[in-house]
Design a protein that fits this description.
This protein has about 210 residues and is mainly alpha-helical. The chain has two domains: about 10-105, Orthogonal Bundle (Rna Polymerase Sigma Factor, Chain: A); about 125-210, Winged helix-like DNA-binding domain superfamily/Winged helix DNA-binding domain (Arc Repressor Mutant, subunit A, Orthogonal Bundle). It has helices at about 10-20, 25-45, 45-50, 55-70, 80-105, 120-140, 140-155, 160-165, 170-185. Helix 2 (about 25-45) crosses helix 4 (about 55-70), helix 2 (about 25-45) packs across helix 5 (about 80-105) and helix 7 (about 140-155) packs across helix 9. The radius of gyration is 19 Å and the shape is globular. The protein starts with 10 loop residues before the first helix and ends in a 25-residue tail after the last helix.
């Protein structure tokens, strides 16, 4: 069966045809998901990275990686494909942030800035620490990774994180607390985390924690 021969093929049928190598099915999947995925990337790319990277480039790279990984995708309902694309895009944003940090355009934290006369061994330890952080983040659930990226790596205020994630500030504060606890389990001592120079305690965000 070729789903793309019907007038309005389902997303599940398009994925099945795309997994079989049908280019038309891939094109229709891109057309169907381009707008919501672009909005998701634009909301999460961060102001610092946005000055160095085009949203459209992240979008194209996300689709390219998604189709490379498409044989591994498992259907879990109507929204599962878009959620899967969003996770891939978040990983791409993290990759680009790391690249720009190495170029010196983005600082993950104040301590990550090369100090005058810093030794090669010091720089190597900093790179090792960042690699460990990246691995620890990769082991978190998508929502835990997203809230840490928004609140701690991009440094957004709690109200803005809540808006982007479609949650209340109080719900985001609780989610961030759970996410940071999981990150501490995976990473170890959080004093050495390559995160923005602020407390890892989600209660120390400089704004009210009042509920909705």
């Amino acid at each position: 069966m070729i789903a793309t021969m019907s007038r309005d093929p389902s997303t599940q049928d398009l994925i099945r045809d795309a997994q079989s190598g049908l280019a038309e099915a891939r094109a229709l999947l891109i057309e169907r998901h381009r707008a919501p995925l672009r909005d998701h990337i634009r909301a999460r790319i961060g102001n610092h990275l946005k000055t160095r990277v085009e949203v459209e480039d992240v979008l194209q790279e996300t689709f390219a990686k998604a189709f490379d990984l498409l044989p591994t995708f498992g259907w879990r309902g109507e929204d599962s494909f878009l959620q899967w694309l969003r996770r891939i895009s978040l990983n791409e944003i993290l990759r680009l942030a790391k690249r720009e940090r190495r170029r010196g355009f983005i600082s993950i934290d104040a301590a990550a800035e090369p100090a005058a006369g810093s030794s090669p061994s010091h720089e190597a330890r900093r790179e090792e620490r960042f690699a460990r952080l990246e691995a620890a983040l990769g082991g978190l659930s998508p929502e835990h990774r997203e809230v840490i990226v928004l609140a701690r790596i991009q440094g957004l205020r709690l109200a803005e994180v809540a808006k982007r994630m479609g949650r209340t500030p109080n719900a985001v504060a609780q989610l961030l607390g759970r996410a940071l606890a999981k990150l501490k389990e995976a990473f170890g001592e959080t004093e050495s985390l390559s995160l923005p120079p602020r407390s890892l305690d989600p209660s120390n965000d400089g704004e009210s924690r009042d509920g909705p």
